[in-house]
Amino acid sequence: MAAAGWLALPAAAWATICFLLPLAILFATSFQSGDGAPFGVFARIFGDSYYRDVIANTVVYASVVTFACLAIGYPFALALVRLPGWLQALGMIAILLPLTASAIVKTFGWTILLRTTGLVNKLLMAIGAIDAPIRILFTLPGLYLGTINMLLPFMILPIFAVMRRIDPTLLDAAATLRSGPVDRFLRVTLPLSLPGAFAGFSIVFSLASSAYVIPTLLIGERHKVLSKVIAHNFLVANDPALGAGLAVVLLIFCTSMIALAARFGRARKES
Amino acid sequence: MTQATSKTRRSFLAQTAAGASLALAAPALAQVRRKELIIGGPAGMTDVLKEDVFPSFERKYGCRVLFDGSSSLENLKKMQAVKDRPQFSVVLMDDPVMIVAQDEKLIEKIDPKNIPNIGAIVQNAIVRDGWWLSYKWPRASIAYNSKNLPGGTPSWAMLWDPKYKGKVMIPSVRATQIPFILAAAAHLETGKPIAEAQYDINAAFKKLATIRSNLLLIYNGSAQVANLIETGEATLGAGMFSSYTLWRKRAGAPVDLGYPQEGSFAMPSGIAKVAKAPEPELADAFISETLGAEYQKVWADKLYDTPTNPSVTLPPEVAAASTLTVIDWGFVAQNRNEWMSRFDREIAI
Asked: Does A1 touch chain B (CB under 8 A)?
């Protein structure tokens, strides 16, 4: 047992140096406000409507993206798990292949697709949704479209992984007990796949609320989210205390949402 | 076995000794090699410098020039990191960054005795009593799509014209170009000449707040602006530089830099000698050569920047420039933090 404990030492050292120590520095920096008050930075953040708006923007952005990914990703994963072998492999390639390209490259790709002469406008015109090209690039709908597309695999993959492990005989058993397809989904598939949905929710929510490259390239300065304001305070305004304070707010906000999702998941499992 | 080990040890010691003597002799060997001049400057100038400037300088002075191309701010950080043992001998940086370099004594005052060509440049290219020199003045104005706007940009007021709703780009408060749009906005709001209006920041913000409905993008990088204008996604890009815009025009892209009646801006490109510079004589020689007619013509012909040596014949794109206003970068440096806060709350929303 003791030997096994020693084996964990490198990993523990890594976690301490790379995660715990920077976190401690971050928290310490956030308490170093110029006016001497230990919570001075937080009073500044929550007392200023500009920072409150930035926090609200981040919450709305991350929430819309996460729920949209869930709404698209869950049925996608359900369909994927029921596809025959080669089609399922094809579906998996379609999800995994974009993950091999960097977020910067994909986001630049979206800046081309979203132009007035881009594919999105052409598709909308082809299906008769619009008569003339509309402006999507550097707008909120364009931001949401690009972000949802880029984060969707992180929702589909955990749901798919959990759904694959659901014993198909359970559905057969439910059918023999005269349970209809909707009933089977609601009473068997949905409850058993919820851990995957909660995992996907946590991952996508964390990625969306801390996204920096995607909102920077797809909408620019006119939509402020916490990640951009944090970077500005560290890199340009030279106000590390405020930057660290905002990072602590983002961290607490993300951790609370993930904890809430995990708690909800556990409650569902127990019930 | 022991003997073999001993032999190995002996040969190891002999090799080590040979290596050590080679290392001790290295400085002498280096002196035999050509002298090296390390220059820090803007990445965007790398090709022009390597093709049209460094080869002839190396031939003339029998040296080798190494160029570290990055942003002015990054080069400043490199200088701060090795302040006591500088790598660069010469730096080419924008004036706002030169001010910081001077304040931190990272550069040393130019000695006119060592710069024979200093007399060839105009007087106001000798900055802050000679701490650095402006070797060229890139022109900043409004870049536009020449296919959609064949008449060009006769006035800065076009940026506010509702005809261009969603087609206008302005620089971010974090971009170098921000003072240009602020000064133009203040001029339009107050009617004062641009050079005077640049200090009326309240008027600038008041006017700039009314541009919001026309904005496509608040930009940080010039490359993105040029691309959006060329593709027709945007029509007007405020504060763009001649060097970024006019080479694309010459390559056949539908983009041009306007000549608004109120005037354009000069963005002084500075050259300075680094404090405690290695190869100080070569550094002086390079600074002097950048002011001479040969390289001044390169700045005008290849980069479309206004030379500070008036003897150079200008290409038409450079010659057509109307009044060039020089921004008070000291004033910008003093106020930028306050502007950033205002801009984020009043404009970038």
From this structure: no
